[in-house]
Fold this sequence. Notes:
CATH superfamily of the domain at 242-531: Kelch-type beta propeller
Radius of gyration: 32 Å
Number of helices: 17
Structural class: alpha+beta
CATH architecture of the domain at 242-531: 6 Propeller
Helix content: 10-25%
CATH class of the domain at 242-531: Mainly Beta
Number of strands: 50
CATH topology of the domain at 242-531: Neuraminidase
Largest sheet: 8 strands, antiparallel
Distance between the termini: 87 Å
Amino acid sequence: MRFFLSGTITVIILNILFVLPVNAQSYGLGFYSHEVVQDKRTTLDLSLSNVSPKENLEISFDLSFMPNHEIYFGYILRIVDDHKQNIDLVYDNQANTRHFKIIIGDRLSKISFNIDDKLLFERWNKLRLLIDYKYDKITIFSGRESFSESGVHLQQSRNYKLLFGANAYRQYQTTDLPPLKLRDVNVTQSGTLLANWPLNEWEGCVANESVNQNNGTITNPLWIKARHRNWQMEKEFTVPGDASIAFDAANEAVNIISQDSLVTFSVNKTPQLKSTAYHSGRQLLVPGDQALFGNDKLYYLYIDQMAVATYDFKTGRWNKGFKSLATNNGHLNKFYNKTDSCIYTIGGYGQLIYKDSVKCYNVVTNSWKKITVKGDTFTPRYLAGLGVNKTGDTAYVIGGYGSASGQQIVNPRNLYDMMRFSVKDKSFKKLFTIDVKDEDFVFANSLVINEKSRSYYGLIFPQHKFNSSIQLIQGSLDKASYHLVGDTIPFLFHDIHSYADLGYFPHSGKFLAVTLFRENDRTRIKIYSLLSPPEPLADKVVEISHVNYFLWIGGLCAAGVVLAFATVSIRRRKKVIPPIPSNVVNDLPVITHYAVPDVAEEGEHLRNSNKNAIFLFGDLQLFTPDGNEITKYFTPLLKELFLVILLYSVKRDRGVSSEKLNEILWFDKSEKSARNNRSVNIAKLKSLLDKMGHCHLSKDTGYWKIEIDYTNILVDYHNYLNIVCNKTRLNKQRIIQLTHITQRGNFLSNIEYEWLDAFKSEVSNEIIDSYIQFANSVQIADDPEFLIKLANDIFYFDPVNEEAMILKCKALAHIGKHSLAKNTFESFNKEYKTIYGEAFDRDFNSILE
Length: 849
């Protein structure tokens, strides 16, 4: 009886699960057509067997055409039965206005119809083909219209082939097909559903059937859902020297300005890539400068000379050239406002200074002016994202990298505020600050603004990495929530040598991401596309849905139901991806308080490594309660698995999802292979942690997490976090405690992983900030010797830290060691010049004042 009730509850829960809301219906199968060679065209082969010979057979499906192709001609569907009878649905755009036609056997039937181009190319259209054997009649339904022919002499059959697109089936083979999209193929008889092929897969060559598991086969599939998640490389090429880009959304083109020619990539024209040599001669371009398309013209901006060059597409000439390669205003943001016919520029960077100025160029009067702005403070920055509303009179600027003073040497940092700039009253208003819980990032130059949904899209990337990647995010214009959409794009970032931008072409429904990288006097351009609306990033979706569903079900039933839910969750992950609740993304817990032993206790613990401990500063070391070091038993893979889970557990107090582990450690393996590898290595890790005592691996919340009893096991990273998390509580004891931790070496100094870079950077920055904040609270006369040691500790992390140099020089001078103070200054100046290529801008006497 208990088993029966448990099973009944499980069934109820599973039924509820499958009616929960899911993401936008961006799925289906796309068909490669005449744009590729015959062997690369798409076939969908579906079969029906042992069909009861009843009165009728109905085949329905949703159909749409892919825009911007040259040829729309060929077979959409061929139905072939046991008697070698064929019924075909074809499309012929060379015919009259009725392009859709039905062929029966070797003749054109009387049935022909049309679907309005706007509906055909922009929406899904349901078609139903009804074969009525009793009355010897064929009817096709399209929207509210129906078209029929009687007396077609068809015989009933038990087996059918449904061949969509190209096929190689016996004498019915064909390679002619239009570039179509298909989904939700259903076959019914007298109201009974015989087969359903949703065509909602992400990948593979199998069309899963949901009624009788009568799966179909596909050759050369183009999965629509994948095109809403996976960026597709459109073009890759190089141009000599520097380059700049400008999106032309109206003509669906990307203009690439090079030194000797204008290269145009067109989404809906052939050829897609066209190069036009300048008739005005070679154009000198400046690294970091900007171009934009507005007022139906192409402009190149050179702020240092307060000049704008305009390109004439008819003559192939620029009306202006430039002389100098140096710039003081690179990587700025810009937009065109058609209300006042002005190009506005905001922010930028040059000569170690971040900019906050707003400038305006009137394209009618050819005049510049600097705008005096009001409202909220706009922090000087570059690497921000900017987007405008439809009329161009309101700009949204988010993120970037800069400093309050504008000076690169004074506490530069990542910025995450959303600022709104109004052209009408020339004012800034701060709307909100987004909450970044993981790795720091900046934005590509442009945002895509959707006023109707009050949302924006932007590309982000970590600017502190060379081998990086860019990620599309969707955020709100009214609140701080955002989430990741689409997969990542590889990106090499090296300051002015790199550039990334985002555009949206509404007619094609595509986002375009463009990356530039200059190397060896050539710039490599890569253009990627993604269909709209973009799908949420798979691993994030699963993490969030896993938490929500787990908590919900946990309140309803016992462990047996939870087990059933876990099974269904895995199956659903392959089929339907629900939306990310923005409140969950932004409200994941971050630990804010850590229990830490006092100075004497920790010093003793650090000196006696035979106590139970996990050390992450310096070399990675794990000691069991009896003093045995077990680090040597960790294979390279186990070590990385351990560190991923540990850092997310200690820093975030939440752990890490299985999907995130797969992404980091087994990204090159199939889902099944990754799951097997993960299970094996998780088991090994559990065994090793059991030797540690006072810590264990759990998944109670749906995330892999290492639970640690900090009263019995020392974790230096946990203690470090307790010190730096609240700088208002800093005192000499806590600073000494921090130096005890860092004296073992830099954080995981001998371990290098790409995902680990963000943690390392954060640790170094927090330690330096803590030391400096404490030093600023102490008078030099009170403890000069300790401050000298503190300055040396700062130099260990940052050899050209200006505040540490000044602190040390003043402290040495205070105790009468003037020559050592002068040597400290000269060593700093030498190192500064090596790194920045110029001398430090202050002399020794000025820093002692």
